[in-house]
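Onboarding guide, step 5: your first structure request.
Type a short instruction followed by the sequence, for example:

Predict the 3D structure of this protein.
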Amino acid sequence: MKAARYHDRGDIRIEEVPEPVVAPGTVGIEVAFCGICGTDLHEYLDGPIFVPPHGHPHPISGEAAPITLGHEMSGTVYALGEGVDDLAVGDSVVVEPYIVRDDVDTSTANDSYHLSPDMNFIGLGGRGGGLSERIVVQRRWVHPVGDLPLDEAALIEPLAVGYHAFQRSGGSAGDVALITGAGPIGLLTAAVLRAEGITVIISEPSPLRRRKALETGVAQHVLDPTTQDVVAEVLALTDGVGADIAFEATSVQPALDTLVEATKPRGVVVVVSIWGHRGELDVQKLVLKELDLRGTIAYVNSHPATIALAREGKVDLKPFITGVIGLDELVDAGFDTLIHRNETAVKILVDPRR
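The system replies with structure tokens like these:
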């Protein structure tokens, strides 16, 4: 079968690989769609980051580059391994793409399995990936999505990132949130916040992405940091108080600086994006405002609630899909667009059989 294989920074190849084997306790999934994630772009431009470099296998998966990419996937069950009796062939599903040690408790009783030693992600640290025709995944990481369309279901993974970021913020209905960056994660985080009754302000330089934020209704206020003083605008919108909670979704230094300035005293700043370089922080401002600065990585037991948001119509995922391409177009029409012309696209999906 065809798969997108990450060899090294700037080196992704579409290659033929063996089909995966459906072992006991696993589920065979025919991939319908897989999103291109900002993390994939970071691997391409700055990596390897999560991808184990050639010659340095990951301690859990035992794999190293080249590995198959893709962790934002949806698909249809085509086979069930021995012992899996709560799914059926033909079910529509998504994958919670974790690689963790077998002795880690991944039940709802543990809210930190995503922070366990040597954690990595399917599609980055090995075990196949969604940028291929088929994948086999342990039953624990497979979530049925019912009648949710499979193209929309491919956005459940990044929506779960937004959901977990919301949980990390401690925000609640009536709060005002500032998000820097209206890329896929920024927009989907905004969608979660709006569904939770939070007022959203987004700062984004791209006209297309600003329009998308307004058209989808995920933000009540959209600012252009190239022509507006974002801090002044946020203060004006909050009667001089500042944002209650803030989300950094760009990995750009000025965006983080803006959040520190625009968040109210004792507010919460959540860093959502993956940084491929060192950032800086004015610690004195953090101290004098008694800000909480929090990191967030991925999700933990977040998929059921996230799927419910989409299935119940509280979040409409369709408008965020701005393109569908084939696997052979991955680099030229996918990565190249999102790296060099990201103002023209939000979420590009890959159909591996197109």
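Each response can be followed by summary notes, for example: The chain has a mean pLDDT of 96.
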